[in-house]
Description:
Blueprint: H1 15-28, H2 35-38, H3 42-57, H4 63-76, H5 80-92, H6 97-105, H7 113-128, H8 133-167
Helix pairs in contact: 1-3, 3-8, 4-5, 4-7, 4-8, 7-8
Amino acid sequence: MVRVPVLKSPDELTGEARRIAEKIVDTRKSLEGPFSVWMHAPEWAARVAHLGTLVRWEGTLDLRVRTLAALVAGRHFQAQYVWGIQGVIGAERNIHRSTIDAIRDGHSDGIPPDDLEIINFTRQLLRKNRIDELLAQAVMARLGADQYVQLTTCIGYYAMLAMTVNGVELPPDPKHEALKI
């Protein structure tokens, strides 16, 4: 059961908190997911929304790469809400179902090499807090310094989302796949 009240509408808030919630709804269409609980700390919600826009839509890092990193982070942290929504986004971004299943099941069988490189990079950073030198060099050669930094920041962003939804026990959207934990 969720540990804090879920705030789904700016109408549930007043003053500056309501203004922030309205701005988030204008850009994201709702207060769903982590924002439904971040609104208990409205300034944090506003700043995370700004960062989230950068991580999710802006910059030069391929959107598919971002989604692979988000899937791995959601799985790593067993974050139901993150996993569920990223599975939907992954399908929209042409990530093969077999790749999503492999991430969910913790293996690498059948994952295309370019995807596996990003998945392994993300897994290493989350599991070991570091990247092996050969993998770091390969990803740097592939992405360049700018996108390499964008990727590591993306991983950190989705780790933060996962910790937030887990810390408050936010359930997954019932329309999305749930992890078996």
